[in-house]
Structures are given as structure tokens and as C-alpha cells.
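On to my pick:
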Amino acid sequence: MIPVPYYLVISAVLFITGAIGVLMRRNALIMLMSLELMLNAVNLSFVAYARMLNDTGGHVIVFLNIAVAAAEAVVGLAILLTIFRNRETVNIDHLNLMRH
């Protein structure tokens, strides 16, 4: 059995990687992927604690989090597709939607 702190270290590394991806990248698609990575890091920590405490509450939260992440991905990709069709770019620096 793998100890819980190992899962938490991997979760922290994944979360930091996602946060760096959101803060450093200018491509909206990569930013959405980084957000998904951060959500999965949180899911990993919930599952690790649920396993440690022998409680199913963590698994329920992860299930709901995955459903919210899927809805967020669908809405985010639809918005990005619409922006790309109109502006032909998904670079955050080139999008000035409020000016037109």
C-alpha cells in the first residue's frame, strides 16, 4: 500500500504544473488544459484522503468535480471555437472582444 503523502506530493506537483501553465501561457486552449490538470490534482488529493479515512464522501466529491470539469470543458471549448471562427486566433493577448 502506497502511503498518502506520496499521493499528496504528486497532487501538489500536478497542481503547480497546472498553475504555471495558466499563468505563463497565452494560448487559451493550453490554459483550459492546465485548469483541467489542476482539477485532477485536487481530485487525486480527495481520493487519497478518502482512502486514508475509509470514507466515500471524497469519492462523491470527485465524481461531482469530474462532472463540473466536463461541463466546463464543453462550454470553454465552444466559446474558444466561436472566438477562433471570428478572430482566427486563440491567443489571449490578441483578443479584445469588448472593444467592438
